[in-house]
Amino acid sequence: MKFLHTSDWHVGKTLKGRPRLDEHKAVLAEIVGHARAKDVDAVVISGDIYDTSAPTAEAQRLVIATLLALAKDDIEVIAIAGNHDSGSTFEAFRPLMGVAGINLYGQARAKDKGGVYSFTARSTGEPVNVAVIPFLSQRYAVRAAQLIAPGDNVPARNVGSYDQWVRNIVDHLQGGYDPDGVNLMTAHLTCTGGAFGGGERMAQSIFEYHVPAAIFPIDTHYVALGHLHRRQELPAGCPVHYSGSPLAVDFGEEENTPTVLLVEASPGAPAKVTDLPLRSARRLRTVEGTVEQLRAAAEEYGEDWLRVRVKQSTYAGLRDDIIEALPNALEIHIHSDFTNTGSGKVSSVQVAAKTPAELFAEYCAHVGSDDERVRAMFDTINDELTTGR
User: Where along the chain do its domains lie?
Assistant: First the structure.
């Protein structure tokens, strides 16, 4: 049977105040196009469908339309909540989405209470079982493990070990596998040794949130992970893959290659994975140069979203000049070579002994500004404030 693995859509994401809904619309249309072209049996979405737990109406309309488009083509849709999503909202809409043929999971469940979703692949007639593990916070991992597999809990000395609680849940869900079928698992979590994409929520990615890839059962044909935005495979006893985000979420991800994964799996055979590139989103790009150099290269940058590092000292109006030349510049910084990187530490006594003009002149020197007009403006404003005019 064949299915697509995707995750970390982050629909509703804005980048430095710029909406990206049109980009998401194009990328999700690409994913639907791949699903139809490859005639897949299912699409597995491994969490962080939305960028926030309270997505806008526009973001929800786009996601629902995408999921319905897949379901209307008789494609099984299995989607779990990530740490950016609202698991409780997913659960509230679960019955309604189920009527439409969309399987939504906001919380971990026992294997016989929806924790393993089973269906028959329409292309091959093979039985398929998908164990689902939505994002688990440190606190909820303990609660979920106690509710799902109370008899499997480890001794009290291990209470608080996120790793162990997740292992308990994985071991329990494995009991829902069929030795004659295709057995899959999808989870939203951080695996030890995984490479960060650059735009993850770090507080829910590090320290106690790590689990080793070795926890996944060897008889799993494929593990579909979400949370890390970089496409990667982790060494384990079974195929363990992050699909990565379908578009660069932030500038830390500008070197990532957005993909959706085509997975072909059969009972008794290792899964075959093919990367399908996604090209609809605008590129994120860091560029450097003087104002004149950047202006001269403006046509080369096209519609890319830009992070600009200016390689000259600042001056009054520099930002306006950059924006005029590069309307898609979202971040503008003075390159570190043109700023004073010293400690800048001064005592309160030193500050008190200097006039506002002297302090401002020192600040300008610290940030690399050498513009007489800026200092003249400061002098005018300071004069107005101190004389009451």
Answer: 2-277, 284-387
The pLDDT of residue 68 is above 90 = yes
Task: Give the end-to-end CA distance of the chain in Å, rounded to a whole number.
Answer: 79
Residues 6+ apart with CB under 8 A from 185: 130, 131, 132, 133, 170, 173, 216, 217, 220, 222, 223, 224
**Taking residues 30-47, what's their average pLDDT?**
98
Q: What is the pTM of this model?
A: 0.83
The model's confidence at residue 302, banded by pLDDT at 50, 70 and 90, is very high
d(CA 156, CA 373): 69
Q: What b/e string do you get for 35-56 counting C-beta neighbours within 10 Å, with b at 16 or more?
A: beebebbbbbbbbbbbbeeebe
- Report the distance separating Cα 284 and Cα 266, nearest Å: 38
Facing residues of 187 across strands? Answer: 133, 225
C-alpha to C-alpha distance for 260 and 254, rounded to whole angstroms: 17
Left, alpha or beta for 197 (phi > 0: left; psi -120 to 50: alpha)? Answer: alpha
Concatenate the DSSP letters of all residues of 160-182 into one string. Answer: T-HHHHHHHHHHHHHTT--TTSE
Q: Is 207 left (phi over 0), alpha (psi -120 to 50) or beta?
A: left
Burial class (CB in 10 A: 0-12, 13-18, 19+), 336: exposed
Report the mean per-residue pLDDT for the chain. Answer: 88
- Residue 351 pLDDT class (50, 70, 90 cuts): low
Are 141 and 186 a contacting pair, CB within 8 Å?
no
User: Two tokens at 333?
Assistant: 């910084």
User: Would you say domain 2-277 falls under CATH 3.60.21.10?
Assistant: yes
Per residue in 128-146, pLDDT (tens digit) is: 999 999 998 876 666 666 6
Q: In this model, does residue 154 exceed pLDDT 60?
A: no
**Of 191, 288, 202, which is closest to residue 236 (Cα–Cα)?**
191
